[in-house]
Amino acid sequence: MQMPVHCPRCGAHLPARGALAGLCPACVLRQGAIALADPLVADDMASHDPSTDPPIDLAEVRRDFPQLEIIELIGRGGMGLVYRARQRRIDRPVALKLLSPEAAADPAFAERFLTEARALARLQHPNVVTVHDFGELGGRYFLLMEYVEGCSLRRLLDERAIDPQRALALVPAICAGLEYAHGQGVVHRDIKPENILVQPDGHVVIVDFGLARMVGSAGDDLRLTRASQIMGTPQYMAPEQIHRPLEVDHRADVYALGVVLYEMLTGEVPRGRYAAPSERVDVDPRLDEVVHRSLQGEPRDRFQSAAEFAAAIEATRSAPTVPAPARRVVRAPGRGFRLSFVNSNQYGGLWNLEGTISLDEDGLVIDHRPQGCPPFYVPTTRTLRIPFDEIVSIELRPKWFGRSRLDLRVRHLTTLDGFPQQHPGTVRIDFKRADGEHAAELVAAVGKALEGHSG
Amino acid sequence: MPDRSPSPHFATTRWSIVARAGAGAAPERGAALAELCELYWYPVYAFARRRGADPTDAEDHVQAFFADLLERGDIARADRERGRFRSFLLAAFNNFESKAREREGALKRGGGQRAVSLDGAEAERRLAEIGSDAEDPERLFLRTWALTLLEVVVERLGREYEDSGRGDLFAALRPTLVGDGVDGGLAAVAEALGSTEGAVKVAAHRLRQRFAALLRREVGETLVDPDEVEDEVRGLFEALA
């Protein structure tokens, strides 16, 4: 069989020989960059996967915890091992979590553990797992928690047991638990389907609150990640958790929940330029905006609280679709359009830009951010303002298939901060045909405004 | 503030040993420079070829250049301030070429100087393969630099797996370096290795992590300031994209 000459992913030429034979260099480097931005990658070559730790001898655990009847090992993950157990004296089912000894090797760990565990033990909410006790025994840190009957959202997703309706029923309950914890000053930091337990009656309990912080040394230099190798799954992490760990607040949970919602709706986590949920499955298009909002790169652009997130979900569940109220601001073509700046140095044409375009009193406002770039390229949302007197023309080029296009010619195009390019240019906006009506509306509004300006 | 002190591994990158005055004894500097030159002669060769030299001339010039560089051993102060070995190398080669033109003829053709183990025929094969005709010399330099660095890293990765008796695993998982998904799926790999799909998935993930760690290290070796690794990777990526 002949080796392919071009990369099926990006079309680049594939080296025929050498260490890279048959591997696309750009894709290898991209993967490398992604892994590099992943806090789980330490520069220490002695990286260690805790899941390969031999399970602790059940007898040993029984000896260390005589007050408990240890029944079985029910979970093992980066954080450690979880046993189903029963408190003998009060005959109460409990879950015993033994944290990985890796984590305890960190000298700062004891202090962090105590602080976090105390905060967790104070949390009392139906949607948050209750921590009964915590401490250290035989060099191992443990948490004794309420035993939750049911299974993880991960398993339900794997079994394709989540339809959009169920997804929307779960989110407000998750939000309720998060909102409560956030109010108590506790950020989860590792919201993902594995940490959301669903009971047979549909009741939701969030587990592993703050554990990522406890064992993950969040806030430490990401290079010194011996401990944070056992932190959560990067796919669910808000960009600031990777890039600015010191600035992480409750809105990182909002982001992660956005990822979970997207996954519940579409079956996949959003990556790069993700398609809006309604493009992929038959759901209310208003959910697109909810997802989009929660997945904003900048925390300030997201829902500012879990409660706000829940309210947005509830709104899509209750109210029937109503036409957008006529306002001065035309939101078109809506989410998920692609921008390209012709005659511009912006991003060197490497990334796709996505964003929204709207109209205000002074002109067009284009909020855009790069999509599909490696994660170390902290994708910030930039706003391009084009005053009416800068607009030369705006032209709609509808298409029968593929994406339609808006061509916006401007007198001066300046798109890169600190690197102005002061000559005429064209902003090319590709949008989905479904947004054609909005686009037409926008063009009409601009035309009207331009008339007003020249008149 | 988190502790930003560089990890011990990065305290002395190869290029920092060469570039920082007083960072090491002269022999140590010479050895570090020689190692770097040995790894990265190919981009210089590609650059020389694209600038118009024929294969024989390019080979001679490049060998003479490295011989001169290694013989001098000492890097001029202005050059030392360069944070990146590749920027230094390109500037130094340009400099060498213009001086060589001044003292035209001084460069002995086929003088037998073998500063680096340059294989001209192999270099030509590689150049022909990547289709370099449309590129300007600097861009080609950067692209071949990125390719060379990646080769170094992948090769090292493979050797590491082989050294620990996991050569088969590496061979099977090598295609996953570009992302998940191999012909026949990971399940087929698992079957071939007598393992489970879950275990193979974990192994593939770990392979990429290891690759990233080696990439970080190797890129760091060519920089003075290891904090610039991500910037540099971005630059390499743009060169390949």
UniProtKB/TrEMBL annotation, chain A:
Organism: Engelhardtia mirabilis
GO molecular function: ATP binding; protein serine/threonine kinase activity
CDD domains: STKc_PknB_like
Protein name: Serine/threonine-protein kinase PknB
EC number: 2.7.11.1
PROSITE patterns assigned to the protein according to its UniProt record, in alphabetical order: PROTEIN_KINASE_ATP (PS00107), PROTEIN_KINASE_DOM (PS50011), PROTEIN_KINASE_ST (PS00108)
Gene3D superfamilies: Phosphorylase Kinase, domain 1 (3.30.200.20), Transferase(Phosphotransferase) domain 1 (1.10.510.10)
Pfam families: Pkinase
Protein keywords: ATP-binding, Kinase, Nucleotide-binding, Transferase
Superkingdom of origin: Bacteria
Binding site for ATP: 97
Species lineage: Bacteria, Pseudomonadati, Planctomycetota, Planctomycetia, Planctomycetia incertae sedis
Ranges for domain Protein kinase: 68-322
SUPFAM superfamilies recorded: Protein kinase-like (PK-like)
From TrEMBL, chain B:
Taxonomy of the source species: Bacteria, Pseudomonadati, Planctomycetota, Planctomycetia, Planctomycetia incertae sedis
Keyword Lipoprotein: no
PANTHER family documented for this protein: RNA POLYMERASE ECF-TYPE SIGMA FACTO (PTHR43133), RNA POLYMERASE SIGMA FACTOR (PTHR43133:SF51)
Record has Mitochondrion as a keyword: no
Keywords from the named record: Sigma factor, Transcription, Transcription regulation
MF annotations from Gene Ontology: sigma factor activity
Example GO BP: DNA-templated transcription initiation
Protein name: RNA polymerase sigma factor
Organism per entry: Engelhardtia mirabilis
Bilayer-spanning residue ranges: none
InterPro entries referenced in this protein's UniProt entry, alphabetically: RNA_pol_sigma-70-like (IPR039425), RNA_pol_sigma_r2 (IPR013325)
